[in-house]
Amino acid sequence: MTPNVSSIDPTTKQGPRENEERIIIRGGKPLNGEVKVSGAKNAVLKMMAAALLAPGVSILRNVPNLTDVHMMADVIRHLGAKVTVGVDEVIIDASDLTDYEAPYELVSQLRASFVVLGPLLARCKQAKVSLPGGCSIGERRIDLHERGLKSLGAEIYCEHGYVHAQAEKLVGTRIYLDKPSNGATENIMLAAVLAEGQTVIENAAQDPEITNLADFVNAMGGKITGAGTYQIVIDGVRVEDLHGAVIDTIPDRLEAGTFLFACMATTGEITMTNCNPHHLYSVISKMQEMGAEVSIFAPDVIKVRSGKIRAVDTTTLPYPGYPTDLQAPMMSVLALAEGTSIINETIFENRFMQVGELRRMGADISLTGNAAIIKGVPKLTGAEVKSSDLRAAAALVIAGLAAEGVTEVTGLKHMDRGYEHLEDKLRGLGADIYRR
Ligand code: EPU
User: Fold this and answer.
1) For the residues 32-53, what does the mean pLDDT come to?
2) Is the pTM of this model over 0.90?
């Protein structure tokens, strides 16, 4: 295989290696049938961190088998928790924590692990957590985490690539977030669980994963109200009031959205089970505008049927707005729409990494600032493409399912972080897809 010039990796100056694992898709088959959505990665990772707050055994159920879950298990094992990752559950015994430092080699593998900062600070009175650094989708600062924890009374400084935090006691206060950051809301909320008095987070992230996290903490004996709204109130409790708990992880709305767009791209007809339609309103509404027929069967089934795709304009926004994580999957569908669409990406500075690869498949997309202008084309053609991040990987798979001929997607480590058995599930819907 001769590497195409535009698929040369700029960091290594090398093309895709012959023996690199890849997904191979023979496109053009409409998806058809039923698929079950897995538990939400972005909920379970935070709940694993929250389990550190309490001595005792917690059981998280409906857990997807993802590399991120295994990496998070390694992070909290390093801190002294005993963790068993089962088929679809994780059992965590956080009775005895032995360390308050989350080192670079673990945190740099998994940004989400930065959320151990809040629980460690609250329970151990100190924490040393590696700064996660930037990543392929953007700068991803942590100033809001720091400011929030400082307001609770923690002394915080950064040195040699680590955030050091310490507080003999945390005291509840009112904290306004400049942006409704998920990570900052989670770190502050978890630290405030063991603070003295009441903490109010204003302009909090409203994502369903935050509600799942608060429900878990409340099952552990915490006192959180308002999660899922812009104002979260946390009444501090003592560590003796907390205990292990059992929680079901919510369905992964981002995996669900990915299946919906895969169905649209292939003009298919699928039924999705174990999903929560309430978490997908912004996405379903856009899909309907794009021409899909979407039916909701309460409480957890969505059916979608797709025909001709219409162009639409979209702006990514914090939840309940259109999610940045489904911007790339939607773009692959709009690449085949009748007319021109515009997507404005307002959450991350660098989340159009899929565009160059989609162009190699025949898409007509141009970028100007934080906007992508997508002129629909009648067909995409299969090509060798490389994914740069999790959702870009999903976008390339969707494009491959719709394209004429064979698409080979490399960079699978990104996909395996967030999609459980993606190719098996798609094969179950009739796709010609396998991994080699
Ligand atoms: N931000 C700041 N300062 C901060 C924190 C965030 O300026 O202190 C900015 C970020 O740079 C970004 C915006 O606020 O522009 C939102 O970032 P947020 O903190 O909400 O993102 P996150 O918590 O780091 C989570 C998900 C992402 C998802 C974003 C947005 C996890 C593990 N990650 O990241 O998911 O895109 O929220 O919804 O929950 C993915 O699953 O592929 C993924 C990247």
Assistant:
1) 98
2) yes
By CB neighbour count within 10 A (0-12 exposed, 13-18 middle, 19+ buried), where does 186 fall? Answer: buried
Predicted confidence (pLDDT) per residue in 58-87, tens digit: 999 999 999 999 999 999 999 999 999 999
- Verify whether ligand 1 is closer than 6 Å to residue 142 (CB atom): yes
Q: How far is the CA of 271 from the centre of ligand 1 (A)?
A: 30
DSSP secondary-structure letter at 241?
G
Instruction: Indicate which residues carry an active-site annotation.
Output: 135
Residue with tokens 């429900």, as numbered in its chain = 215
Report whether 57 contacts 245 (CB < 8 A): no
Q: By alpha-carbon position, which residue is closest to atom 18 of ligand 1?
A: 181
Q: Are strands 432-435 and 384-386 parallel, antiparallel or unpaired?
A: unpaired
The verdict on the CB of residue 360 being under 6 Å from ligand 1 is: no
Q: What is the pLDDT of residues 268-291, one digit of tens each?
A: 999 999 999 999 999 999 999 999
Sequence length of the chain is 436
Q: Which residues contact 295 (CB under 8 A, 6 or more apart)?
A: 302, 303, 304
Q: If you take atom 1 of ligand 1, which residue's CA is the nearest one?
A: 141
Check if 144 has its Cβ closer than 6 Å to any atom of ligand 1: yes
Hey, what domains does the chain have and what are their CATH numbers? Answer: 16-38+251-435 (3.65.10.10), 41-248 (3.65.10.10)
Determine if ligand 1 sits within 6 Å of the CB of residue 390: yes
Q: What is the pLDDT of residues 135-192, one digit of tens each?
A: 678 778 899 999 999 999 999 999 999 999 999 999 999 999 999 999 999 999 999 9
Best probe residue, ligand 1, of 42, 145, 316 (max atoms within 8 Å of C-beta) = 42
